[in-house]
Amino acid sequence: MDHQTIALSTEGGVATITLNRPEALNALNQRMVSELTEVLSMLAKNDSVRCLILTGSEKAFCAGADIREMAGQSAVDMIRTEHLHTFWEMVGRYPKPIVAALSGYALGGGLELAMSCDIILAAEGTKIGQPEINIGIIPGGGGTQRLTRAVGKYKAMEMILTGSNITAEEARSLGLVNRVVPVGQHLEEAKKVAATIASKGPVALKLAKQAINRAQESALSEGLEYERELFYLLFATKDKDEGMKAFLEKRRPEFKGE
Ligand code: CAA
């Protein structure tokens, strides 16, 4: 499929998806969402890809859902088409780790997209927020839930109710961003993190991600039980044998996803 709104490149075990609608600061329109859905499904099935990077341009990671496209839609249209619902579900439950590399703006659906990823790196000065209230709506891609879990009730309330942005530096101090890097270096930094992740065993990566996400969704006791089951399950993999053997033999492990 020829992509108009995104670009895809792969290097080693890392696939980089770049949002590419510069004329709209990478706003998520239906076309971009269907191209992303198609590429994410394809990469999920590709065993040679172990970690993904999602990025945009230096000017904008993503300025949210496309307001031009949504402007004419009624509540009935939104309910009937389940606006972006399948997409948010898919990104939220994606089986491989995704590193989000932000710069410029990460607003509305753009921030929600980043928060559905697993590690968030941002260039200095990136403007981060949920400005939906400014256009009469509320976040619709999980923002009220994920932002609250990430920064706590009071900061989430302030951001969502006032619609004002915070900087990457503030987001970092709130635990919403892992690391802030100089402008222009967000992708390079993401590649380093992604390469480290991609060197690990894919089965362990998948289950670690699943277990951490479960911590967000359940009581601690249920989460710990779930984690224990997945932990024991990993002892049935050859990658665990290889990983432990390599450690004891003081060499690099060769994980095969078995
Ligand atoms: N949808 C559609 N087009 C957008 C857009 C969006 N979310 N954000 C920016 N654009 C377009 C602008 O309309 C403009 O296009 P034209 O040149 O054709 O007029 C172009 O991108 C450049 O934008 P600006 O001229 O506004 O650039 P700026 O530097 O002055 O401002 C900005 C940048 C502060 C990000 C501003 O564009 C802005 O506020 N954008 C909207 C942000 C927003 O409200 N996002 C939430 C969307 S709703 C949502 O995401 C719902 C959800 O939860 C799923």
Can you characterise this structure?
This protein has helices at residues 30-45, 67-70, 75-81, 85-92, 109-115, 143-151, 153-162, 168-174, 186-198, 202-217, 220-234, 238-248, and strands at 6-11, 14-19, 51-55, 98-102, 105-107, 119-123, 127-129, 166-167, 179-181. The protein is α/β, with parallel strands linked by helices and 258 residues long. The strands form 2 sheets. The protein has a 6-stranded mixed β-sheet, sandwiched between helices. It has a 3-stranded mixed β-sheet with strand order 5-7-8. Strand 2, helix 1 and strand 3 form a beta-alpha-beta unit. It is globular. The mean pLDDT is 94. Acetoacetyl-coenzyme A binds next to helix 2, strand 5 and helix 5.
Summarize the structure.
This protein is an alpha/beta fold.
Features of this protein?
alpha/beta; six-stranded mixed beta sheet; binds acetoacetyl-coenzyme A
Query: Please, what is the average pLDDT?
Result: 94
Widest β-sheet, arrangement of strands: 1-2-3-4-6-9
Shape: globular
Measured as a percent range, the helix fraction is: 40-55%
Question: H/E element string?
Answer: EEHEHHHEEHEEHHEHEHHHH
Number of strands: 9
Give the termini separation: 31 Å
Question: How would a textbook summarize the main sheet?
Answer: 6 strands, mixed
SSE inventory with pairings:
Blueprint: E1 6-11, E2 14-19, H1 30-45, E3 51-55, H2 67-70, H3 75-81, H4 85-92, E4 98-102, E5 105-107, H5 109-115, E6 119-123, E7 127-129, H6 143-151, H7 153-162, E8 166-167, H8 168-174, E9 179-181, H9 186-198, H10 202-217, H11 220-234, H12 238-248
Parallel strand pairs: 2-3, 3-4, 4-6, 5-7, 6-9
Antiparallel strand pairs: 1-2, 7-8
The protein binds acetoacetyl-coenzyme A (CAA).
